[in-house]
Design a protein that fits this description.
Shape: globular
Strand order of the largest sheet: 1-2-3-4
Number of domains: 4
Strand content: 5-15%
Radius of gyration: 27 Å
Order of helices and strands: HHHHHHHHHHHEEEEHEEEHEEE
Distance between the termini: 40 Å
Length: about 325
């Protein structure tokens, strides 16, 4: 049975979870809250004067870690969050990450006092930043300014396109005929041997875990393959496709004048329209890219500025897709 919560009127920015009165009562009472009380607290924070995303994230984690969702006959926290609050899995996960990053000790329903001057949109942009960079951000800085800092930080974390190209030319191009096994081949010949040094002016250091290229942080081999495939796919798309010339089949009987042809009955012909391939997901900075028609459009406008939005509609083809918001917009199929 869950503990009775103290009643405190919500009348200011900090909400009941950061109230000094609330902190002093019953110690860490929130760790003993049961399933139904957890749901009620989340609902209260969604509909409060100013919702506490940190508290929402904490109680989602609380329900998940203690498997309280089973009391509602749900299979997991994602099913519970969807049915009880209309949250998609990316949105629910984002709330939990916000709690990890911005709550007291990373595991309470209380907002850390050093972030009290920030709004949710600012903190959303700060989510992927390392702690030392977070410490330098001021509440006076706009979302656009924080996003620019995050973008620059991301550039340092990943090798540049030029560095990926050079690494590919030197170390991966020879395996083009076995691209499906490229990751295993690079691990075998570079990673396990801890290969490193300077090749063609490119500094690199390999391990079985991943590779560090230039000034960037180490990335996994899987992520390197993703970047190489992105680079190669762009090169392939830029090349004109050869024309398919179909030679007449000498074994096919020639059409006689006046003879009926199968072409006279289009309703029995198989559909010859090209099959459209749909990408599993697309990922872009600041913009959304439709997974169906690949139209690029403004992500913030499509989401109406709502960082909790989980679905967007392509303005070109009109189809809906899921969207996960962080520093980048990740679009994926919702079918």
């Amino acid at each position: 049975m869950s503990r009775k919560m103290p009643s405190v009127e919500v009348n200011n920015y900090t909400s009941i979870f950061t109230s000094p009165i609330f902190k002093d009562q019953n110690g860490e009472w929130y760790r003993d809250v049961g399933y139904e009380d957890s749901l009620d607290i989340i609902r209260d924070n969604f509909h409060g004067v100013r919702k506490s995303f940190v508290a929402i994230g904490y109680y989602l984690k609380h329900i998940k870690e203690n498997e309280l969702y089973k009391e509602g006959n749900y299979q997991n926290i994602w099913e519970c969050a969807k049915e009880e609050f209309g949250l998609s899995q990316p949105a629910a996960s984002n709330y939990m990450q916000m709690n990890d990053a911005f709550s007291v000790n990373g595991d309470t329903p209380l907002l850390d006092e050093k972030y009290a001057g920030f709004n949710k949109s600012q903190l959303q942009e700060m989510l992927a930043l390392p702690d030392e960079i977070k410490e330098e951000i001021k509440p006076e800085q706009t979302v656009v300014e924080i996003r620019k800092i995050a973008r620059e930080e991301k550039k340092v974390k990943e090798p540049s396109e030029a560095e990926i190209q050079k690494f590919y030319d030197i170390h991966a191009k020879n395996y083009d005929d076995n691209r499906s096994n490229l990751k295993e081949l690079l691990i075998q010949y570079l990673g396990k041997g801890h290969s490193g040094g300077n090749s063609g002016g490119l500094n690199y250091q390999c391990s079985p875990r991943g590779v560090k290229i230039g000034r960037a942080e180490e990335i996994t081999w899987a992520h390197l393959i993703k970047l190489i495939n992105l680079y190669i796919s762009l090169k392939v798309k830029s090349q004109p496709e050869p024309e398919n010339i179909v030679e007449p089949d000498s074994n096919v009987d020639q059409q006689l004048p006046g003879q009926m042809s199968v072409q006279d009955y289009p309703e029995i012909l198989p559909d010859s329209s090209p099959v459209k391939m749909v990408a599993d997901s697309t990922q872009r900075m600041d913009d959304c890219e439709c997974i169906y028609c690949h139209h690029v459009f403004d992500g913030r406008e499509a989401c109406n500025g709502n960082m909790d939005n989980s679905v967007v509609e392509c303005p070109k083809c009109g189809k809906e897709m899921g969207v996960s918001l962080s520093i980048e917009y990740l679009c994926y199929s919702i079918n």
